[in-house]
Design goal:
Elements (H helix, E strand, L loop, with lengths): L1 H11 L4 E6 L20 E7 L2 E6 L4 E6 L4 E6 L14 E7 L4 E6 L7 E5 L6 H4 L12 H8 L6 H6 L9 H10 L13 H22 L7 H8 L18 E4 L4 E4 L1 H4 L16
Helix pairs in contact: 5-6
Catalytic activity: Hydrolysis of DNA containing ring-opened 7-methylguanine residues, releasing 2,6-diamino-4-hydroxy-5-(N-methyl)formamidopyrimidine
Pfam families: Fapy_DNA_glyco, H2TH, zf-FPG_IleRS
Keywords: DNA damage, DNA repair, DNA-binding, Glycosidase, Hydrolase, Lyase, Metal-binding, Multifunctional enzyme, Zinc, Zinc-finger
Amino acid sequence: MEALREFLDGHLVGREIARVLPLAVNVLKTYDPPLSALAGTTVTAVARHGKYLDIVAGEAGLHLAVHLARAGWLRWKDSFPAAPPRPGKGPLALRTVLAEGDGFDLTEAGSTKRLAVHLVRDPADVPGIARLGPDPMDGSFDRAAFARLLAGEHRQIKGALRDQSLIAGIGNAYSDEILHAAKMSPFKPVRNLSEDEITALYEAMGATLGSAVERSRGVAAGRLKAEKKSGLRVHGRTGEACPVCGDTIREVSFSDSSLQYCPTCQTGGKPLADRRMSRLLK
């Protein structure tokens, strides 16, 4: 998302919005101000709050906050057909057209529609943004701040890393990658982490996220998803060889997601039971 923010910052800031068209029934979560208020405004900034993109426009500082969810994406277009698209057709959820004729589409694949767009006067008016924890990419997020967040936690580390109210912006894929880099079981209880393990986890988080941003810098929006997948070591690579030790990457499936890990690197060679309430086999 940070790489996508940088891409949009370079393509939107200083440019005038001609119109914004909602094309899926449930994509727009707010009604005041209306999307028509963006017509004729100039984009002044593109920010990121966790997994939310925040396009700021106009003298009044309207915020078009976008959460792409699991199956959503942003596709940059150099031009659009003359005829406006019909609502409810295909994956197209929202279209933003600039005065020069280019702009972007928001799309969402699949039948489960979770992509969300809010137009607000203050990003804190978006409930998902208001409850976000600190961003690990923020310069003030040091090892001591990380340790304070973990104090008193009773969850497994995988769930804690994915909790947006605890730490903003880490999802399923990069939590797998961070834990692999830290050589840590996803089911290890946070309360059992030693000081050295907290340090290793903090350093793995910074290195993994920093490397992902650097690798994606300058990549066009349409290629960012493919670039992300190409840089992942364990997530989405069930059955492949671990690039560190050569062991077979394994998976634990849940009702609506899955995680991937390397037994040799992360669990002492022992497989995790593939059931919802799994724990590391002892």
